[in-house]
Write a structure and sequence with these properties.
heterodimer, A: 246 residues, mainly alpha, MetI-like fold, three-stranded antiparallel beta sheet, 9 helices, B: 238 residues, two-stranded antiparallel ribbon, 10 helices, 2% strand
């Protein structure tokens, strides 16, 4: 299990899992902040949009969303993008090689499974992240903002110097646990055939007939990740949560 | 668009081959949404008792009671549900010596998996009560177990109800993972119909998502209302 082919497969699976998680975590952060900002603008349609977005994606299973993005989105997204994803490319530069282009001879193949898996994870996680950030900002009493306005700060300055420094301290532990959830949820992209850790474990199970060894190693890797992260949260809480003022 | 295909299969999505009669399990061959709801319901029912035991054990002062509960909760919370399902799927025949249906396997997994989360909810609920409640109960002459049973838990459980409902929602979403083992619940029916029809993927998956959304959103709104109602009766520290 720890030597030769299985070990190499597990290592590749671990790398893929971390790659998927990292990319979708970064994208989900950006999307989550955008959704949260839209929710707080006074313009009603923006609020409705972001409310519908968070409620819909939080209340449907990730597996269904993955199937939706992979199987069903083909029928609604424009033909240009479909062609772009399904064609072979001679050379494709830049950050898109992150999405796992595979080399077929001297051609490169766009990895649609990985791409759609990342999109599904991003959208699903961003709905949760938007809610966490909003809850963090709302947990700061409103009179802090009023007080900062009374002192002479502008609205944005009030957010920049008074609200956000306090809100971010509250928001960071739940955000880290969302990142942890994301790493665990990323095991679901194996249903599309993305070769992540879980997929490689099932692969070893069927190829080498070692179900318990394979799943135990997968479990230990997931457990190690989550224990490290929850240790970080505990240390963070010890150091910084005292400074939050109400 | 092919909405007629999605709507034509709506009965299959909702109940499939489920039949009702007075023979013992009463519901035979559950499929579709019915199977999902059954999985979620029995899952949360088992998880409640497992979680109650684990949460109370974790708060114990004796290390030989505390350590197993801590290990159980931390290990389960650190692993993906999919991994647990696969593990049980291969482990169950080794332990019991006979094959176990995928439906039973997944239901057992949901109990064990959600039990860890419910354990944390129970612990948080008991910790959230002011210390004075326990001290007052002890000073009136109740033993620790009696105080727990008669004073702490009735209050704590009431405060935990919204979290339980939220956990139920997340379990309802997690039942979709049973599809990977081939249990014919809502997601699996979606995969089957999608593979058969091939042209109506968009409509089918939107229908499936909306069915899940209906169930989960009703429960979420209910838990928000409960939270607003129950917060008035909470014992506070001041």
């Amino acid at each position: 299990m720890f030597t030769g082919e299985p070990a190499q497969w597990m290592w590749e699976g671990f790398c893929t899992t971390m790659q998927i998680s990292t990319i979708s975590l970064i994208c989900a952060m950006i999307l989550g902040v955008i959704i949260c900002v839209l929710r707080m603008t006074p313009f009603k349609p923006f609020q409705w949009f972001s409310l519908a977005f968070t409620e819909f994606f939080r209340n449907t299973p990730l597996l269904v969303q993955i199937f939706f993005w992979y199987n069903a989105s083909y029928f609604v997204i424009p033909k240009v993008i479909n062609d772009w994803m399904n064609d072979l490319y001679y050379w494709f530069p830049g950050p898109f090689s992150l999405f796992g282009h595979q080399f077929v001879g001297e051609w490169m193949l766009f990895n649609v499974e990985l791409f759609m898996g990342i999109i599904a994870l991003t959208v699903y996680t961003s709905a949760f992240i938007a809610e966490e950030i909003r809850a963090g900002i709302f947990s700061i009493p409103k009179n802090q903002l009023e007080a900062s306005r009374a002192v002479g700060l502008s609205f944005l300055q009030g957010y920049r110097y008074v609200i956000l420094p306090q809100a971010l301290r509250i928001v960071i532990p739940p955000l880290i646990s969302q990142a942890l959830n994301l790493i665990k949820n990323s095991s679901l992209v194996m249903v599309l055939g993305v070769t992540d850790l879980m997929y490689q474990a099932t692969q070893i199970e069927s190829y080498h007939a070692m179900p318990f060894e394979a799943f135990t190693v997968a479990l230990l890797i997931y457990l190690a990740i989550s224990l490290v992260v929850s240790f970080c949260i505990t240390m963070y809480n010890k150091h910084f949560m005292i400074q939050v003022m109400y | 668009m092919h909405w007629d295909i999605a709507l034509g299969n709506l009965d299959y999505f909702l109940y499939g081959t489920t039949t009702l009669d007075w023979q013992f399990p009463f519901i035979h061959k559950p499929e579709g949404l019915v199977a999902s709801v059954i999985l979620a319901f029995f899952g949360i029912f088992g998880a409640f008792w497992i979680g109650m035991a684990a949460g109370l054990m974790r708060m114990s002062k004796r290390w030989w009671v505390k350590i197993p509960a801590v290990c159980y909760i931390e290990v389960i919370r650190g692993m993906p549900l999919l991994l647990l399902i696969f593990w049980f799927y291969y482990l169950a025949p080794v332990i019991t010596g006979q094959t176990m249906p995928a439906f039973t396997t997944t239901m057992f997994c949901f109990m064990v998996f959600t039990g860890a989360y419910v354990g944390e909810i129970v612990r948080a609920g008991v910790k959230a009560l002011p210390r004075g409640q326990m001290e007052a109960a002890r000073s009136t002459g109740l033993s620790h177990a009696q105080a727990m049973k008669l004073v702490i838990l009735p209050q704590a459980l009431r405060n935990m109800i919204p979290s339980f409902v939220n956990q139920f929602v997340s379990l309802t979403k997690d039942t979709s993972l049973a599809a990977i083992l081939g249990v014919i619940e809502l997601t699996r029916t979606g995969i089957q119909v999608d593979n058969r029809e091939m042209v109506a993927s968009f409509e089918i998956w939107i229908t499936i998502a909306c069915l899940y959304f209906l169930v989960c959103y009703v429960l979420t709104s209910y838990s928000r209302r409960l939270e607003a109602q129950l917060s008035r009766y909470q014992a506070r520290d001041r």
